[in-house]
Design a protein that fits this description.
Elements (H helix, E strand, L loop, with lengths): L5 E8 L5 E5 L4 E6 L5 E5 L4 E7 L3 E6 L4 E8 L2 E4 L4 E4 L5 H10 L2 H4 L11 H17 L18
């Protein structure tokens, strides 16, 4: 049901607090979040790495071999990546909503949200990390977002 370059996934919380993420292309990832918010992952294709949240909805995905991709959360469960892939989180989403989002596609959201950066310098990454931590520290917890949020989101 997905278009070329569009992959859906669903998360399942494991007993130890990690998450098993199953992608529609057959890939499975096992993910754990550290206290700083970085997600450590490995998959069934012998890939390993981290997903690090950066300010502005940007995620830095670093593979163990040194490859780096950036993604941006564009809303409604969609994440777009610098390699052209688009992922849709269908965890807890009604089947009809997932079908609608796949039909509309991430392209409908691309005109509204800037794409992920193709590359970030180390100082820019440090600034985004720092700004993101300060923003998180200032945010008041409520029923929708909590400072200790363990709920799986688009990248972890």
């Amino acid at each position: 049901m997905s278009r070329q370059g569009e992959t859906t996934y669903a998360d399942e919380v494991m007993a130890g607090g990690g998450v098993c993420r199953r992608y529609s292309d057959g890939r499975e990832e096992w993910r754990w979040r550290d206290p700083e918010g970085t997600v450590w992952w490995r998959d069934n294709r012998r890939e390993h790495g981290t997903d690090e949240p950066l300010r502005g909805g940007v995620v830095k995905r670093t593979h163990l071999d040194g490859r780096v991709l950036y993604g941006r959360d564009v809303g409604f469960g969609w994440t777009i990546w610098t390699d052209g892939r688009r992922t849709l989180n269908r965890t807890d989403a009604p089947a009809g909503l997932v079908a609608l989002l796949l039909r509309v596609g991430a392209s409908a959201l691309l005109g509204v949200v800037p794409p992920p950066p193709p590359w970030l310098s180390p100082p820019e990454q440090a600034r985004r990390r720092r700004d993101g931590r300060e923003e998180k520290d200032r945010a008041e917890p409520d029923d929708w977002t909590r400072a200790d949020d363990d709920v799986p989101d688009d990248f972890g």
